[in-house]
Amino acid sequence: MNSESSRGAKSIAAIKAALLYSYPLLLVLLAWEVAGYLELVRPLFLPDVGTVLSQFWTLLLSGEIVGPLVVSLLRAFAGLALAVIVGVVAALTMARSKWLRWALDPLISFAFPAPKIAFVPIFILWFGIGNTSKILLVAFTCVLPMLVATYHGATGVSQQTIWSAKAMGTSESKLLTRIIFPASLPYIFGGVRVTVPVALITAFTAEMIAGGGGLGGALMYAQRFFQTPTVFVYILVMLITGFVFDHFMLRLRSRWIPWQDDTDAA
Length: 266
Hints:
The chain is an all-alpha fold. The chain contains 11 helices and no strands.
């Protein structure tokens, strides 16, 4: 009986926590539904929640959500994977090479604050409107945040640790793979968490501007024909996608580097 009551108390606590977490979203949905019900805004500009949900179900069954979403995710994560590889390798190398740091630091300082999405026309001109331009644009947008995050982690390793490892005969390659890289993992995961939404935003925006399919292209096609419920469906799918992947990264971090969660809690 005690176990059942404790299980019920845990369920109630979980429901309360979920409601407290999601109440801002529920308030937005409520205000949206009231505005639609009272016709405060014309349905052409703001359809009610029920209409959008009905259209979502229709598009889901017809495959008009899953197909474009898969295309966008492949572009976003292919570009992100490329950015992670290049950024991590370059950052670790910079942390151990003074001449490379001297050569790249001014370039990074100049390019980091630049609005990368402004390069969409250039990437279209060079690589067309297909997958290549979107993947490379995502990689171009995400590589510098990954490089900076990893570099801060790599240079944060204490000099005493590095000197001790060298005194024990540790080679430069093993120093990178067994000491500096593991110490940089929390920073790498932090960089990935930051760049996942950046990758999604870049992929969606490039599709809106350049076409070539994907969720962004589908949204702009619906907007061109004033299919407002469909436009809102695609916007909500984009928002939910970003939310889901952000929580996935948090779960992944707590599983792979649980000591980082302990540090944050402290």
